Amino acid sequence: MEFVASIIDTVFRPLKDYFARTVGYVMSCGDYIDLMIHEMSELKSKRDDVQRMVDASERQGMEATSQVTWWLERVSILEGRVEAITVDFQERQELPPEQAPGVKATYLLSKMADEARAEAVDLKDKAEFQKVADELVQLRFEEMPSAPVLGRDALLQELDTCVRDGDVGIVGIYGIAGVGKTALLNKFNNDFLINSPDINVAIYIEVGKDYNLDDIQRIIGDRLGVSWENRTPKERAGVLYRVLSKMNFVLLLDDVWEPLNFRMLGIPVPKHSSKSKIVLTTRIEDVCDRMDVRRKLKMECLPWEPAWELFREKVGDHLMTASPEIRLQAQALATKCGGLPLALITVGRAMASKRTAKEWKHAITVLKIAPWQLLGMELDVLEPLKKSYDNLPSDKLRLCLLYCSLFPEEFSISKDWIIGYCIGEGFIDDLYTEMDEIYNKGHDLLGDLKIASLLEKGEDEDHIKMHPMVRAMALWIASDFGEKETKWLVRAGVGLKEAPGAEKWSDAERISFMRNNILELYEKPECPLLKTLMLQGNPGLDKICDGFFQFMPSLRVLDLSHTSISELPSGISSLVQLQYLDLYNTNIRSLPRELGSLATLRFLLLSHMPLEMIPGGVICSLTMLQVLYMDLSYGDWKVGASGNGVEFQELENLRRLKALDITIQSPEALERLSRSYRLAGSTRNILIKTCSSMTKIELPTSHLWKNMTNLKRVWIASCSNLAEVIIDGSKETVGSNALPRAILQARAELVDEEQPILPTLHDIILQGLHKSKMQRQVAENKLRERLELSHPSPTSKSCISMAWQSSGG
């Protein structure tokens, strides 16, 4: 009987349980919902405890174990299911009786609630973890694609020294686009850091112009093995900071365009004696300064030997067996790349299949006149350089850069020269009242272009240069990317014997034929859009046909300096927009009366020319004139009965004048100048010559000089009766027989430090003084046997040395 009962129980109990559960699902749905919610509440409490432990571990630079991560994900999924079941039940409770769900629907809802409860219980049982997080495991180094880096061994060694220097936390490498900064960084990563046992991890990041903070954090996190979905940038920064602070890291940041905020990224700045380092590359020098770089390394273009080796490598072995003529042309072409690796590689590849000398000669011509036409240049060289141009913060800077391309290749450009042009063109506004302030603004703009690696230092600090490839880029942009090649018609320093035909001038906005061998301009070009015309440095140019300027209504800048012209052509008055006129070092002896019609003229440069006649009324008609240079030029000013030329009053009527270089030939004119407060304050350089009635002069404390607060140089030449020059209030004197030519440096030692009268005065120059007895009472360090005059030369407009004849030449 017991056996039968056991069989019945075995068979019917499951049926009984199933029947009871089924009835219960239908009759007690609310009870199943309550049980589910209760178990889920306990599970969430357990989940919160585990999550707190995980968070605490991550703050210590650890990472949740895979088991814990799986468990947390399962709890999260279950939480969503429970929420959905609960909402469904609540919605059913709110329905009217006639819309109540059927038996099957109630059964299914209770069944889902019961299954969710059971899973919650199971997850609670699995929540007993021995550990919730492990130490991070990261790859120490990642090898980057790299190529041989020619000529950079010394720079690599210097970089390695900086990284090993405990006093240097951040190293910045800056230089022009295409110079090889990325290649250098890759080489350093692959060959140097991999052999550094003290470094726990090296992380290489290509930042780029449009970098994203989240992307940089993600790259660092991936290298460190950190995962952080659904975390804010601030939370990610905290995790990174804690992890990196516990290790020796090297962070390599390539192509940085603007300062990165290390705090927001979560990157600890290496402290003194730290083995952690940050190395960045950039085109923009002040990015280094604004990121507190401790050591800046400028990456220069390659010197000739490695540049030539790189070029030959890209051309191919056949160059070594080519004719001497081709090898000579190849060297000339490589030279035009200016040592820029990117250009050497591109041009070398473009010439790899060229086998004749004529092909090589043609390539040189193309690179000189229209470099964008050479295979690969536009895409591989000019486009990358253009990014630096596009990144400039203002159109004024961009125009200033383009303007520098008007000068010959590798030309050392006087900063004051280019600034004067830019003022004339309107690139540099004159919001400032003093000319020095306007020029300071110009120097600041040029400094910004140097900082951006778009200009280089010239022959000295007062000059700048443009790299040949930057110049190529500028000309490409100026020509509307090669679409309008005569828009900026630039043939500077290319050996022209004749100017291009007038038909090529018609669409031009800027023209530069400077430093050529042009002898005559005999056509009358029609140039309605032309704003700048640069003809300087054509020493044989002695004839410009009448009416030449008649059809240039927009011209603002005209430079005829260092030519042999002896007169201005008729029709000069047609230049109604002209702002800047340079006639320096020409053979002009007489100015035309129609020059007075140039009502907008702001710059007039008449220095170093045999000017003898200026029609009355011309000077005073130039009411907008701000800069007038007439040193070693016209000086026969009429003051009372003294002088036979232009009334000195005409100079005094120039109420906008801010800078004056002047030649004086009488004591009366000097006295008049000294009493004219505005003119005296504008005077920078003064030449006193052939003043036969002058017997004595006192420098610089005499009342003659008190208003000349911007005076830089005083030149005294061929004053035959000048017997004594008194230097400052100490009454030390120099007799005019002291030396045939001499400079007295008049800096601080010649000026009372407590009451400086002429704080800007640099030089007092004496020359051609022979008659009187020698009185040498000045210390040797104040007297030097040389004569230097600051004025542009035919090629560079830099300071030049001249020997004036005793006649006052």
UniProtKB/TrEMBL annotation:
Keywords for the protein's UniProt record, in alphabetical order: ATP-binding, Leucine-rich repeat, Nucleotide-binding, Plant defense, Repeat
Domain of life: Eukaryota
Composition-biased stretches (Polar residues): 792-809
Domain Disease resistance R13L4/SHOC-2-like LRR: 520-731
Domain (NB-ARC) ranges: 162-317
Region Disordered, annotated ranges: 786-809
Keyword rRNA-binding attached: no
GO process terms (BP): defense response to bacterium; innate immune response-activating signaling pathway; plant-type hypersensitive response
The keyword ATP-binding is assigned to this record: yes
Any matching Pfam family: NB-ARC
Molecular functions (GO terms): ADP binding; ATP binding
SMART domains on file: LRR_TYP
Similarity-based family: Belongs to the disease resistance NB-LRR family.
Name this polypeptide is given: NB-ARC domain-containing protein
